Each structure stands twice: as C-alpha cells, then as structure tokens.
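Study this pair:
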Amino acid sequence: MIIDRDGNITIITQEKASVKTLVNNIEQAYDKYKNYHLIVNLSSIDKIKLEDIIEFLRLSNTHRSDKKSFVVVTENADLDQMPDEIVVVPSIQEAYDIIEMEDIERDLGF
C-alpha cells in the first residue's frame, strides 16, 4: 500500500494485497490515520465486488463517527449497488469534492 498526505487528507492506494488484507493493514495502523480524512484508492483493482466494499464498512463507520471523512475510490464497481453507509466515488477529484462538502456540513453543524 502506498500512503500519501495532502494537507489534512491521507490517500491510501492499494497495490498488490487483497482488499481484506488492506483493511487489516489500515486497522492495525489506524492511530496514524485517525486524525486525517481518508481516501482509499482501489483504482488498480480490475473488478470490485460489493463484498470488497463492505470490508471497509466498520472502518468507515469508526472514522466518520470521529467527524472525519472516509471515501473509497474505484471506477470498477457498480456504484448503484454500494450501501449508503459508505461513500464510493469513481475518481480522486470526486473524493476531494466529497471531503470538502462534508467539511462544510460539519462546520454548519449538520
């Protein structure tokens, strides 16, 4: 996994490990990421199944309960099948847009 920082955003890019392994690696190192908005980039994976996205659900719920954004990026999944509890977008730019909108909502008290 490749980790990049952009201000208050951490971008974790999946390389070779399975989604389940990636989730475990993020959970084990969570203290490093908990104060940042997280973007998990899965664009290198050819086909993403609903089960793969659901692997991130617990991590997403934990992160979002701490008033931080959690966004998964993949253009290789059926976005209509994704659960409402997790944010999945097809591009990095859309992930940044979601984080910006959620920051505005948090500032306004929504």
User: Anything to note?
Assistant: The chain has a mean pLDDT of 90. The radius of gyration is 13 Å. The chain has one domain: 2-108. The longest strand covers residues 2-6.
